[in-house]
Design a protein that fits this description.
Blueprint lengths: L1 H31 L6 H18 L4 H24 L7 H23 L4 E2 L9 E2 L4 E2 L1 H23 L1 H11 L1 H6 L4 H24 L3 E2 L10 H8 L4 H22 L7 H16 L14
Antiparallel strand pairs: 1-4, 2-3
Helix pairs in contact: 1-5, 1-6, 1-8, 1-9, 1-10, 2-3, 2-4, 2-8, 3-8, 5-6, 5-8, 6-8, 9-10, 9-11, 10-11
Length: 294
């Protein structure tokens, strides 16, 4: 029982990070029906921008973190301006295909600038390890879960408690109608991509804080696929719940299935779970069921 509680607890903390990744995908999809397959690459870019400010330039964390996130958001806005904006009004599938190309382009750019080697990455945050007689939750995953949840909540407050958030919701519901009411949908989409890129950077920094940063960390961005498809492509709450589910599933697979000889199974377990959910609920646990008339 203690092993089970340990695995679940560890999974919840990393699940909060996956939930943040899912949120970043969902808000872009709700606004443009585009799935951002370059999430992992945005995550690595944001992490490297923070690395330069914090480790290379030696800026304090309180300064380097907001500057790094702002830089990541700027990159997201620039990418949207030059690659997504020209495709507005066309099929969402075409924009999704562009993000696939973006993933390769951004990864190659990161490799060209920073190379393929790993960089030591430790934020040296205060030790908040929780230890009991039977359970041990180490500090870094707790901090990762904490920062991810704070970011998640801040995004929700921005979306549902500000005028900009109201405009984003309007564009997400119907771009044409929002433009008819005087909302600059093109600019709103740029803002959404910038917010998404900044939030993805938070997830990347927290994951890198486990010890190392490299371009290969972009593969973690693939965890957003089962999170979004399990929770629902257009469900913000679903992203939170599905992120926790994916994290716990991965942790349980590592604790109980891999010791049986299936090394590496925890990496694919979330995708098996995703397929199972999609067989039962094709639109995800909380996704909107769409009925199309033929």
């Amino acid at each position: 029982m203690n092993d089970f509680l340990q695995a679940v607890g560890d999974g919840v903390f990393i699940g909060f990070v996956y939930a943040l990744l899912g949120l970043c995908i969902v808000i872009v999809f709700k606004a443009s029906e585009t799935f951002n397959f370059a999430a992992g690459e945005f995550m690595v870019i944001g992490s490297f921008l923070f690395y330069v400010l914090f480790f290379d330039l030696g800026l304090p964390l309180a300064v380097a973190l907001p500057l790094g996130l702002a830089a990541a958001g700027l990159v997201g806005g620039i990418v949207e301006w030059f690659t997504i904006k020209p495709l507005l009004g066309r099929s969402p599938l075409s924009m999704t295909m562009v993000t696939l190309g973006l993933a390769f382009l951004l990864r190659s750019s990161v490799q060209f600038i920073w190379g393929s080697e790993s960089y030591s990455f430790f934020l040296e945050l205060p030790d908040i390890t929780v230890e009991t007689e039977e359970l041990l939750f180490i500090s870094d995953p707790i901090w990762a879960g904490f920062f991810s949840m704070v970011t998640f909540i801040l995004v929700l407050l921005f979306l549902f408690r500000t005028r900009w958030g109201l405009a984003i919701q309007a564009v997400s519901e119907d771009q044409a109608k929002s433009m008819a009411f005087g909302i600059n949908a093109r600019f709103i989409l740029l803002i959404i991509w910038a917010i998404s890129a900044a939030c993805i950077a938070v997830a990347g920094i927290m994951i890198s804080n486990f010890g190392a940063l490299s371009v290969e960390a972009a593969s973690v961005g693939l965890r957003s696929i089962p999170v979004v498809l399990i929770g629902g492509m257009d469900s913000i709450g679903g992203a939170l719940i599905a992120g926790i589910i994916v994290g716990v599933c991965e942790s349980l697979a590592g604790a109980y299935i891999e010791p049986m000889g299936l090394v590496g199974f925890k990496e694919v377990a979330p995708y098996f779970l995703m397929l199972l959910v999609l067989f039962i609920r094709p639109y995800g646990l909380f996704g909107t069921v769409r009925i199309e008339r033929v």
